[in-house]
Every structure is written in C-alpha cells, then in structure tokens.
Give the backbone structure.
Amino acid sequence: MPHPLHGHFLLDPAVTFLNHGSFGACPRPVFEEYQAWQLRLERQPVAFLDPVRGYGRWLAEAREALAAEIGAEADDLVGVTNATVALNIVARSLPLGPGDEILTTDHEYAALDKTWAFVAARRGARVVVAPLPLPLRSEEAFTEAIEARMTSRTRVLFLSHITSATALRLPIERIVARARERGILTVVDGAHAPGHIPLDLRALGADFYAGNCHKWLMAPKGSAFLHARRDRQALLSPLVVSHGWTADRAEPGPFGGTAFVDSFEMQGTRDPAAFLAVPAAIRFRREHDWDRVAERCRTLVDGVEARMAELTGLSPLSGPEFRAPQMAALRVPARGEARDLQARLLEQHGIEIPCYDWAGHRIVRVSAQGYNDRDDMDRLVAALADIFALPAAA
C-alpha cells in the first residue's frame, strides 16, 4: 500500500515516483488553491491584473509568507518562474568586462554553465572552474579548493547550495563570507534548497540567491524567487522592461512597491497564480509537520544509498553531512547508455528516476518525498540489482 501521504498528491499511482528533485510534485490542496487563483483571474481579469487594487497586493502577501520561511525581508525578493530565470537576470546584469573572471565549480547545473558561458563570451570575461574534492568529506577542503582559484580578476563567485547532478549540500557559508571580504560578488543557485534545508538568507549574506518553490517547497510549477541584498539591487536590470520599471532606482516603484520589486513583478499581462499559491504550500507543510516527514525521507535516502553502495562496491560521492537530506546520487555500473537505463527502469519496473553520466560516473539520482516509503526504495534496489545482475538485495 502507498504511504498515506500519497493520497494528498496527484501522482500516477501506477508509477513509483523517485524524481521529486527534478520538478517537484504539488499536493492536491495546494494545486486547488492555484486553480482558484486562476479562476479568479478569468472571472475579472481587469480587476485582478490591476497592480494596485489587484495582484500587486496579493503578490506582496505571498512574498511576506515566503520571506518568513527563508529568513529574508519581503522587499528583498521578487517572484519569478524558475531559478534559471532568476540567475539569468543576475548574470546578464552584472558589470563584467574583458579579463574579469567568474569562479564556479565542476558541480553546477548545466543550464547555468551555459548561462555564464554566454555572458562571458559577450563581455570578454572568463569562466574559471574549481574542481571539488571527491568524496566530499571536509568543509575546509571545499573552501580551500575554491579559494585556490581566486585571483585579483575574480569578480563573481557562483555556487550551488545543493548540486543538481551530484546531490551534494555544499558548505557555502564560509566561502561566501570570504568572497565578500575580497569584494567578490556572490551568486548562489538555491534551486533545490527551499523546503529541503533550513534557510536564513540574512545570515548567509550572499549578494544574490535564487530558489525554486515548485521543488521541495511543493508549490505549483512556475513559482520561484530571486533574492538580492538591499545594497546590490541597483545592479540588477529586468530581462523585460515594462510598466514597473523606473529610471531612478533609489525612488519607490510606480505601483507602490520598491523600484526593485515593481521592475520585476509588474511586467504586463501574465498569470501569477503559481506564486500566489506559495503561502498554501507553506501552510500544507506546517499542517502535516513536514520537518518530521523530511526526517523520515532522509532515513529512506540514507538506507538506499548504503544498500546500493554495498551491492555495487561504489562508494557515495560525499559523507552524509554533505549530501542533500532527501536526495542522493547513487553510483551504478556504467554499462550501456544512461538513457536506456532510465527507460528500462520506467518501462519494465514502473520507476520514474533520472539516470545520467557525470564526470565519468553513472548516476541514478534518487529523491524521497512524503509520498514515498520503504517499499519504493526496495523496488528501486531490486530493479537495479536485476538490471546489473547484482547479488540479491537485502
């Protein structure tokens, strides 16, 4: 029988869904709230899309709820559709020039590797990649690996909080502080962080932080945020200049928000329902004691990671303190094509899970969310044992 929480989700019961990390899954009550906002928009679109008497006020309320969840001020964040959009805003806005360096790691999300390459090529800047030590077992080793690549030309430090391909929780706090001491702008890809790990963006102090709400926070697809320190907001320009923009960044925005908020949130006709449903996602988590649920999920991931390492003889990519709590990159034998393995797991075993190659490793990335249970993990281990002819799984 599925876990009782499975009934709160709209997932296909015929599929063992172990891929929450890619696009999340929205609980039914949150999805209904999302649809209610969409219906409200269609019933009176003129009133709804009025920036002052309509959605501007509701967006502010959603930002307040989200800010309380992530340790931020509401006026320091704006709603966007996904973390990639947020990070494109930052990358395209920063004043980079010929010879400037963007320092990053070899564990970053491929779409953002392309973003920085695109910006660097047009500005004459250079992307510098710091390889991280594997297995990752020391915050000191992590910090030293990045500091070793800093130079007098380093202008930007770009890091993931939780890496996508390798499911590592990077210990970024010290290196963010050291970068700021050197006058280096810090940009953090927190796509997997909100709802997955505790966040206090005030304490972290990164100049720019992007996060998805539609993954682990379980809001509808198309809800994310960009957070910028108050003293860095004037550096940012919207990808779309529209009604909310004002030339004087020190003045209030034209619709009652700050210049930062209005320039990004008031951009003409759009459907803001996904972001307006973020407070419903936060309420759902509280009503179901999601800290306790998350701890159960972490136990599930701990168990499947240990079992697969024992079966394959392939050790994890990090110590447990540096792995994402509810996600793990399981190393498996590199036989055939990764896409064929992913297709076989779905078609023959009914398991939806990503499989890919990263830096010479074949990875099966498992996620555990509240709708998962031990039977789901047993099913994955048994399927991989069958495919790779491994000893019987315990």
About this structure: The radius of gyration is 22 Å. The chain has two domains: 29-284, 289-387. The domain at 289-387 is CATH 3.90.1150.10 (Aspartate Aminotransferase, domain 1).
